[in-house]
Amino acid sequence: MSSFAGSDVSALTVAVVGLGYVGLPTALALSDAGATVIGVDSSPARLRAVARGAVDLLPLHHAQLACASAGDRFRLTSDATAVSTADAVVICVPTPVDARREPGLTALSAACASVVEHAVPGQLIVLTSTSYVGTTRDLLLEPLRSRGFTVDEDVYVAFAPERIDPGNEHHTPERTPRLVGGAGPRSSGAAAALLAPTASLVRTVPDPETAEMAKLWENTYRAVNIALANELADACASLGLAPAPVIEAAATKPYGFMPFYPGPGVGGHCIPCDPHYLLWQLGKVRQQAPLVATALAANSGRPARITERALDLLAASAVPARGARVLLIGVAYKEGVADVRESPALEILAGLAAAGADVAYCDPLVPSLRVGTDALRHVPDPHGRPWDLVVLHTVHAVHDLTWLSAVDAPPVLDTRQRGPLPRAASGSGALPPAEVTA
């Protein structure tokens, strides 16, 4: 291992700790830039899935994985000591929240402690996992100093928040700007040099805390605007308006507006979790953020509102909830991915089942699903079945919804209110009168 001092990336060995939705694309981007990559993950099952290519990636990244796996500069291991052989270490482990919406720091703390334990002089350590302001200092800088390292002289540390939009081929990491907040100028320079080939541009900020807060600000901004979009969509419904044309009209303004769209709630790895790290930390210093707290509560309550709306529609059709045949289209938290973490669909399905409905789902990217201890029924081809209600939750590009535009189609609850359903293949299928929005 050679000392890292802004060397050409192709001359480096980089250990990526955590091969999830962030770590694996990061490892592949570094491999594509010519680095020798060591993928470290504590889960043997995940390592086997990566080795087989049985992972949820864009086609571009699947091609990168196949290419990397065919060479001898990309290897996988569960051995945490492997980071000691690397010039640079990138930490990409999950940072969820627990049932009380408080930070779940177990995986992050363990990963950082292991990296610190095996750190060597001249090494660059980059943390990418979203967390509270001060995480890099608490989990990396201070422990490294306790080991006798002089940070920014004989070891380099930076925080560079991940910016990965799973399933979106237009926002791949390589096309997205990256932030770097180093523990000092050398750390910032080293981290920027490492990440430059993996991003459209790299912007350095004064310190890790600035980068940490920037990440929390980004996703808190999104959470608040999603809550606002849902509230204004409900206002549109009360006024007899469809939200989508209103949003599109407002979006013609070239300044001061960014379109956000209504939906069944928030899901995935960022929006339902990251803002709670900020609220948790502010609570410790007795600082209130009432707007943020209200928005998060509204987002959390959205799936229950969708469930209530579905039950109201069944009642309006004189269909008892108990035994009602309800199909949910799409259970992933967003289009184009197989990820169901924090998906509003889980709560909606559980709520409908609790009311006695006979629930099933159709999602070609998620062939099996459990809610609690119960396995849900997956219906790959729902066309022609006697559904009492169809709930549009997540519509993937591979979904064929033309059957819902037939004259005899079941009622549809569109949770995302994106406009008319596709016309039937014959071109004669008008929207069914029973189609409604959330």
Automatic annotation (TrEMBL):
Top-level taxon of origin: Bacteria
Segments carrying the region annotation (Disordered) are: 164-183, 415-438
Q: Where is the composition biased (Basic and acidic residues)?
A: 164-177
Record keywords, A-Z: NAD, Oxidoreductase
Task: Report if keyword Magnesium is assigned.
Answer: no
Is this entry keyworded NAD? yes
- What Pfam families does the entry give? UDPG_MGDP_dh (PF00984), UDPG_MGDP_dh_C (PF03720), UDPG_MGDP_dh_N (PF03721)
According to the entry, every stretch annotated as the UDP-glucose/GDP-mannose dehydrogenase C-terminal domain falls at 327-420
Q: Which family does the entry's similarity section mention?
A: Belongs to the UDP-glucose/GDP-mannose dehydrogenase family.
Q: What is this protein called?
A: Nucleotide sugar dehydrogenase
